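Q: Hi! First time doing this. I have a protein sequence and I read that you can turn it into a structure. Is that right? Here it is:
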Amino acid sequence: MRGSKMKAHASTPRYSLRGAFALLGIILLTAILSIASYDFFMGESSTPEGVVQITVTSAILGQDRELIIHLPRNYDSTKHYPVAYVLDGSSLDNPVANAFDVLSTAGYVPEAIIVGIPNMSARNRQYNLVPPYLRVDNDKPDSPMGEGDKFLSFMDSELFPFIEKNYPTAPNRLFIGHSRGGLLVMYSLVFKPGMFQARLCFSTPMWRQDHVMISKTSEFLGTQDSLHTFVYMSVGEMETENMKSGFVRMSGVFMEHALYGFKWVGDTTKIANHQTNAQVSTARGIARWGEYMKSVN
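A: Yes, that's right. Below is the predicted 3D structure, encoded as structure tokens:
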């Protein structure tokens, strides 16, 4: 207390200011992430203004695709912002925007532009988000294969140029997905590593078809000398054993291939299932990305 004097005795532990500030930082971050998670559960946006809904025509997909673009709270056309591309737009893009708003206000991450990509239909989602070496319907041996490679080509050749022409972007892209969306996020690492500088995937079914995604990722990493990217992945403690085994195996692959410049974080979310894991992991994964950004800048 101010004005009082205290004597230190041999049996009294002494704490440094650095340790005290570190503890305070952990407490503050926990509170911030709790606020961001609350916004997710309530379905409310802390940035109600600055949301743009537009439609772009894709020659690659042969479709008109809706985009939901969240501009940062302090948007300034003379600044340049990282861009987070979020699958399952109209669902996952809101909590991503909320988390960025809270964490950037607190100084943990930079402000960012959020681009949500909604699904046209449930069936369309299956084709778009599944890699070409996985069946669209996992339980049907004669099921057609996914078209995730085509969707990534749409993003790389049509979506990125559109966003970067119309908004002030920095050369820093994030790719965020949940469940099947996580499959596409992880596949993009092998498809074209330089498409994104960070990838966040929650509850990704990497166990499908005898863990073929894990095998292909391991093969790819084995051909690389370095890989300058960040990957965050999480699984819920209450998810299926298949889901958890895929997470553990991919973690093992990342530990085996400790490439220069490659940073990854894996979290198991306590008392979370397939749906609630994404709710908690969104803010936490973005915070981890913020730590990564500070470490490389």
